[in-house]
Amino acid sequence: MPPMNTPDSLPPLREEASSLTRRAWLGRSLAAAAAASLPLKLVAAEKRRVVVWSEGTAPDDKVYPQDINTAVADGLKKHLQGWDIELANLKSPEQGCSEDSLKRCDVLIWWGHKRHDDVKNEYVDRIVRRVKEEGMGFISVHSSHYAKPNKRLMGTACGWGAYENDGCTCKVIVKEPNHPIVKGVKDFTLPQIERYSEPYAVPTPEAVPLAGTYVYPDGKQEPTRLGLCWTIGKGRMFYFAPGHETYRDFYMPEVERIFANAVEWAAPVRA
The domain spanning residue 148 has which CATH number? Predict the structure, then answer.
């Protein structure tokens, strides 16, 4: 029969536990000191950042009393996790295009209509440089086809064949169902739309995830492209043709999903 342990033969539990506690505390202290010496982005991943820019004229038409950029941002908040979503406009410091803001921006969404020429060229230069040389994503919306950043990035006139607000509806068609921008989106109808007729004077897109069919009040139908994608230098660019300030496009769940998907698609890959 094996000998029984006596109090003298038992291991010094308290001393051992105390020693382990001291070692654990020392290890944690050293780890904390090492972490403190590292750049913050290596300790905890920085949030992605999308800036939604609008010139500020849409509230005049009452449909978007807090402007279109607010409506777009509200839709993004429903779908994007781990993103900072910020607003900018012509009245923001440096028209919302400061070097600091753009440097921290993963994706810039741009809606303009009546005040394209008010955007300073030096700020456009910054946007183009961030997209082409540093990989920032750029999403251009509706009448922003004539916006300075859009035209500079495309390198063409960016005009459509015709512009008519003539009572058309539009059947939005998911043309490339495997494209990330249309993930979770099915065909849907915009009950009102400002018709932009082909041809659209831009370089050949690398993808057209969204096509459409305009339906005239008399039943006539006209095909068009609604969502087009390019790679411009190191950056990705998406153009979405709907989005007139007098229609409720940006409140539609399908459009909200498209914008959220487009932001994630356009964002640069982080190392």
Answer: 3.40.50.880
